[in-house]
Amino acid sequence: MKRKKIVAGNWKMNKKLLEAMRLSTEVIRAAGKLANGSVEVVLAPPAVYLHTTISMGKRVPQIKVAAQNCHHEASGAYTGEIAAPMLQSMEIDYVIIGHSERRKYFHEDHALLQQKVNTALAAGLSIIFCCGEPLDVREKEEQEQYVLQQLQESLFHLSADQWSKVVIAYEPVWAIGTGKTASPAQAQAMHAFIRQAVAKQYESKLADQLSILYGGSVKPSNATEIFANTDVDGGLIGGAALDTDSFMAIVKAIL
Ligand code: PGA
């Protein structure tokens, strides 16, 4: 079975309204010219622009829209927060869960992320679950154990059926926004490790169908060599997703 190829642009906390609309318009137009089914182009704008983005992308099947976060409860008295069922009601496709910036700045731990995973899946959303080790862990060569624990504690309670809605993004923390990228060999090694771990916990058919994205300073100049690896099924792109030309160059690198 051929795995789904996905290139997702995580805009983080960037762009004002008109800039966001322009970027969405340009990417949607460019993605509409790609062969349908060749790659899924995911836009993850700030939450305030989700509605506009989803309306603009509706008629382009190559485009999917992701929220960058959701709350761990389905509703309630949580001023300022956004619930997964709200996202689902807007026909949002994905929610990113466990991004390293959420883990670091908002102290989201394994248990909380497990709750977010459950709430998002229960609402009918698909998830892009981020994992990845910080620099000191990589220097001690303990990255596999570290990432395995992230998966065990927040994802391995899921049923096999639920995995059809899961995409994993491996993002070594030391490569995010730093200009440093994992080498193609480092990316491939970790992606293969993640796939094996899922195969061991569930079954190999499920693991074979799982899309695993790489994230961390992916640029037009390094995307081709990263995407060329057998177990790399796409990318989660931050900085380079803020410009249509660089983002689309990365999207095209996977075709
Ligand atoms: P970056 O961010 O491409 O700017 O390194 C990736 C991410 O955080 O998803």
Describe this structure in words.
It is a single chain. β3, α3 and β4 (94-97) form a beta-alpha-beta unit. α1 (17-32) runs parallel beside α2 (50-57), α7 (143-154) crosses α8 and α10 runs parallel beside α11 (244-253). The protein has eleven helices and eight strands. It is of the alpha/beta class. The longest helix is centred in the C-terminal third of the chain and has 18 residues, at 184-201. The chain is globular. The chain has an eight-stranded parallel barrel, surrounded by seven helices. The structure holds 2-phosphoglycolic acid.
Q: What is the fold-level CATH name, i.e. the topology?
A: TIM Barrel
Average pLDDT, to the nearest integer?
97
**Spatial strand arrangement across the major sheet:** 1-2-3-4-5-6-7-8
Structural class: alpha/beta
Count of β-strands: 8
- Give the count of helical stretches: 11
Q: What's the end-to-end separation, in Å?
A: 17 Å
Structural shape: globular
Low-confidence stretches: none
The named CATH superfamily: Aldolase class I
H/E element sequence? EHEHEHEHHEHHEHHEHEH
Domain module tally: 1
The CATH architecture term is Alpha-Beta Barrel
What is the CA-based Rg, rounded? 17 Å
Helix content bin: 40-55%
The description of the largest β-sheet is:
8 strands, parallel, barrel
Identify the CATH class: Alpha Beta
Q: Which small-molecule ligands are present, each listed once?
A: 2-phosphoglycolic acid
Q: Strand portion, in percent?
A: 5-15%
